[in-house]
Amino acid sequence: MTQVRPRTLLAFVALFFTWSCLAASIKSRGSAGLFLDLADLGIDVTKRQTGNLAGYLGAFFLGADPYVYFYLSNGNDALSFRALNKGQPVIRPTKGTTGVRDPTIVPGGGSEAGKKWYIIGTDLHIGRTTWDAAQRTGSRGIFVWESTDLINWTGERLVTVEDATAGMVWAPEAIWDPAKGQYLVHWASKFYPTSDPHHTGNPSNIKMRYAYTSDFKTFSPPQTLIDKNPTNIIDLNYLPLAPNNPNSQSFLRFMKDETRKTVFVEVSNSGLFGTWTRPGGDSAVIQSGVEGPASYLDNLNPSKVHLLLDFYGSDGYRPFESTNPGSNSGWVGSDRGNFPKNLRHGSVLPINGTVYEAIRARWGV
User: Fold this and answer.
1) Are residues 127 and 178 in the same domain?
2) How confident is the model at residue 51 (pLDDT cuts 50, 70, 90)?
3) d(CA 146, CA 108)
4) Does some domain include residue 332?
5) What are the phi and psi torsion angles at 319 (to 5°)?
6) Residue 71 lies in a domain
7) Long-range contacts for 106-111 (Cβ within 8 Å, ≥24 apart)?
8) Angstrom distances, CA of residue 200 to CA of 127, 161, 192, 194, 298
9) I need a labelling partner for 101 at 20 to 30 A (CA). Which of 11, 26, 185, 221 fits?
10) Does residue 49 lie in a domain region?
11) Up-side HSE of residue 124: CA atoms within 13 Å toward CB?
């Protein structure tokens, strides 16, 4: 008689149990055919890649280090990131103040879609100035870099977008405007009267300004985009709700009320210059004591939006999420177990598998 070893017996029992569970699962689905639910076997199908989006690339600055740092998601997990380039900056500016804050990755639009990307940011090194001086006689330019692969960044330039009456240009971002066929670039500025050329007096409230560009080299004359006088508004962030549909008119825009130190969302279903409404009324907010909203769609759940909010007096970005993003209520804090601490105002870009692997190969993990 052959003796059955204990390890072999345990393996047989485990295999029998697995197939018993599988048979029960199939039986419970009746005669509709063989249907295997991977969740029955403990496999989290929500982590599988869908479509051609395989992950996320984040660009941030780190508190006292005003440079561009890259973070790559762990697979297609929107809340799990790791530092690239061994935690060192990917971009160090050489112009202006030699510091860049609020880096935003701008995906190409129109004929540049999928072929070109830009990074734009604030020209500010706060370690070499004061907050008062940075708002009175700060930089009036926008940092720009460009890339054809999200790996090699060239063409550093500092483009002046406001005249001498502006005290600063802060937190620039950009979005492709399909109706115009150009990039709409926006930023926050306050202004001083021409009779105060040294900007020693009282300025205007901070308002959102904008201009159009096709190449991030030449810009149209700036105009006012949002003015909620006397309230100060900064850190505007747009999110197209159907980015692959050039005819979509549905957008969200998040912004910071710098006067009350809150972040809220507005909704438009009639384009970038359509009618914007603030769900819940003028006092409705998502969160207090935060800034730098950075929103991005979930690659796996098309109804979910992620929103990073910078707790600037604490540990930087914390992730929030909602399946009803066109509302100022219902946003909940996300799982932060694998989300890095101390990331500051930046952006997150969904990327495909080819780009994901190329970035990982170039910058390392």
Assistant:
1) yes
2) low
3) 10
4) yes
5) -85, 140
6) yes
7) 106/173, 106/174, 106/175, 106/183, 107/176, 107/349, 108/176, 109/176, 109/177, 109/178, 109/183, 110/176, 110/178, 110/181
8) 22, 22, 9, 12, 46
9) 221
10) no
11) 27
Nearest CA among 337, 361, 298, 316 for reference residue 60? 316
Peptide bond into 221 cis (omega under 30): no
Strands of 332-333's sheet, edge to edge?
291-297, 305-311, 316-322, 332-333
37 & 67 share domain: no
- Taking residue 349's Cβ as centre, other Cβ atoms within 10 Å add up to 17
| 307 domain residue, yes or no | yes
Q: What is the pLDDT of residue 246?
A: 79
- Does the structure show a pLDDT above 80 at 271? yes
Domain match, 175 and 29 both = no
Q: Which tokens is 99 given?
A: 């510091």
For residue 16, give its domain range. Answer: 6-43
- The enclosing domain of 154 has a CATH number of 2.115.10
Total-model pTM: 0.85
Where are the alpha helices (H) located in the chain, listed in sequence order? 6-28, 131-136, 353-363
One domain, residues 10 and 148: no
Q: How many of the other CB atoms lie within 10 Å of CB of 305?
A: 24
97 and 29 co-located in one domain: no
Return d(Cα 162, Cα 209) in angstroms, integer: 9
Q: What is the mean pLDDT of residues 117-126?
A: 98
Tell me, rounded to whole angstroms, the distance of Cα 327 from its chain centroid.
Answer: 18
